[in-house]
Amino acid sequence: MAQLIDGKQLSNQVLQEVASEVEQLRAEHDVVPTLAVVLVGEDPASQVYVRNKVKRAKETGMGSIEHRLGTATTQGDLNQLIDQLNNDPQVHGILVQLPLPSHLDEEQVIAAINPAKDVDGFHPVNVGALAAGQASLVPCTPQGCMIMLRQVHPDLSGKNAVVVGRSNIVGKPMAALLLQANCTVTIAHSRTKDIESLCRNADIVIAAAGRMELINADWIRPGATVIDVGINAIEVDGKRKLVGDVAFDSVSEIAGAITPVPGGVGPMTIACLLLNTTRAARRQLA
Ligand code: NAP
């Protein structure tokens, strides 16, 4: 039976580190690291994510500012708000919750954020820095996955890793971080041929396709480490349930280590967002 990598427990450790860094910045520099969260529209999932991020931020002693804008918000209104937050010295991190309503241009919004305050790590300057192996604000979900992987593999050097998914927010930065850690990395996507045998050869499989239980036990080499990023909502007996991209019951019989959904990558993502906010605040001291 696979070792369970407990994202709840591990995220609590990260949040404790964040809380002590918040305390240190306050005591030594009279700075309260502050995260501004911008939510546009009424998407229910986004509302839950924003609520959780703000709640956790408060628990660490960090400052948080919420801007809730109506669905009819224009690009100009949003750019103006971002400009204001970019220029506010009390704000150290800016997060615009995605997805935005379809009339708004996400790329333009991300590019409008000051890269030094881009705690999601999506700005092209931070994306480029990560690709070049330079210090940057790293996207939260892949950063959380790396902390989880290090629990099992303190040294990742030479491991074969397959990342299933090539999105800008998960797959691509995940592959960049694994490469930085000296893994041999394969990125698989919807056009990849014989994805099963690629995964079967891997020491590490990162599932980030957004396809319910795509990866089953036949895809996994005995003893491999499986990180399940996927979040898929299903209904069981009239109740909403979250499942990952990995068929947990069968894969956990064969894998060496596995993350659950929920309680895996999700809590780590929020913890890493707050870690990025303290890092951004410290860098802005200089
Ligand atoms: P996305 O933008 O939809 O990207 C999905 C990727 O998976 C694409 O690259 C796609 O390939 C690939 N893909 C889709 N079906 C596939 C298949 N059958 N075989 C192989 N590859 C396939 O999604 P995302 O934003 O990266 O998110 C992925 C999943 O992670 C979602 O379930 C999302 O909810 C979850 N997520 C979780 C967290 C967390 O904190 N736990 C954070 C972010 C996202 P193409 O590029 O060829 O289309």
UniProtKB/TrEMBL annotation:
Gene responsible for this protein: folD
Pfam family of the protein (one): THF_DHG_CYH
Record domain Tetrahydrofolate dehydrogenase/cyclohydrolase catalytic: where: 5-120
Keyword tags: Amino-acid biosynthesis, Histidine biosynthesis, Hydrolase, Methionine biosynthesis, Multifunctional enzyme, NADP, One-carbon metabolism, Oxidoreductase, Purine biosynthesis
Assembly: Homodimer.
Task of the protein: Catalyzes the oxidation of 5,10-methylenetetrahydrofolate to 5,10-methenyltetrahydrofolate and then the hydrolysis of 5,10-methenyltetrahydrofolate to 10-formyltetrahydrofolate.
Residue span(s) of domain Tetrahydrofolate dehydrogenase/cyclohydrolase NAD(P)-binding: 139-284
Name of this protein: Bifunctional protein FolD
Pathway noted in the entry: One-carbon metabolism; tetrahydrofolate interconversion
Gene Ontology biological process terms, A to Z: L-histidine biosynthetic process; methionine biosynthetic process; purine nucleotide biosynthetic process; tetrahydrofolate interconversion
Family: Belongs to the tetrahydrofolate dehydrogenase/cyclohydrolase family.
Catalytic reactions of this protein: (6R)-5,10-methenyltetrahydrofolate + H2O = (6R)-10-formyltetrahydrofolate + H(+); (6R)-5,10-methylene-5,6,7,8-tetrahydrofolate + NADP(+) = (6R)-5,10-methenyltetrahydrofolate + NADPH
Species, as recorded: Halomonas nitroreducens
A molecular function (GO) term: methylenetetrahydrofolate dehydrogenase (NADP+) activity
